[in-house]
Fold this sequence. Notes:
Elements: E1 3-10, E2 22-30, E3 52-54, E4 57-58, E5 64-71, E6 75-85, E7 91-101, H1 106-117, E8 122-130, E9 137-144, E10 148-153, E11 158-162, E12 165-169, E13 177-180, H2 194-197, E14 199-209, E15 212-221, E16 226-233, E17 239-246, E18 249-256
Antiparallel strand pairs: 1-5, 2-3, 2-6, 4-5, 6-7, 8-9, 8-18, 9-10, 10-11, 11-12, 12-13, 14-15, 15-16, 16-17, 17-18
Amino acid sequence: xxxxxxxxxxxxxxxxxxxxxxxxRAYLSAVSASNAGGTWEQEPRPNGFExxxxxxxxxxxxxxxxxxxxxxxxxxxxxxxxAEDASSLAPVAEALLPVxxxxxxxRDLLRMADERMNQLQSVRLREELRGRPDGDAVTEMEFVxxxxxxxxxxxxxxxxxxxxTRYERAGPDQPWNVSPWPQVRGFRWPDFRYASTxxxxxxxxxGQVDGRPVxxxxxxxxxxxxxxxxxxxxxxxxxxRLTMHTTGHYMYWTFxxxxxxxxxxSPADM
Length: 270
């Protein structure tokens, strides 16, 4: 927004610990509002706004860095965050993020995405858990309303849930084990409600996912602080992609095959 805007960055390692001996810098520059191709290009603004450094001051915890930047205009900006070794000045990490100031419209987009996703009859989902010490884990999932899901894990395990019953096996040639689903009402899908749980939501701009135009929204859920980014189809308002990051957990979801003809049956009926 016009006037003073506070910028806060949290810099930590994979385990959520402080990274000692680093200096964090941030730079803000104006970008083009037309981002149909998903690329962000710097452009001059009518008021003469140019790229400027935001002085970042470390907090008492050694992980949070904060600064203030004065803006005379709203719009789209490109935020570059750099971390460097305080002694050698060698680069340690870098992030480039498009941001919209102010962040209006984000909650409405989440609400519309919840509504559209909750109207689905079926969908496929690819989940990737990245950055794990033992390697990335990939799970392929299929959902069918109102109470069915099938999960195929990268290690060969398989799980089917139908209402209040869960079926699991350790591999394709292994026997199925049956147990109750822990929730009292049984498994229910779809149940999307990001608009009601999101805090500090920001519409950061537009992009593309698999050739589809999307809105990109950031938000957090507290407590604990869980950071989300969702890519919402600009025409259908379906969620195309979602990432969720918290300490030691980096999850990436890709939704596809919306309302495809998917059948999920119990192992006894196969």
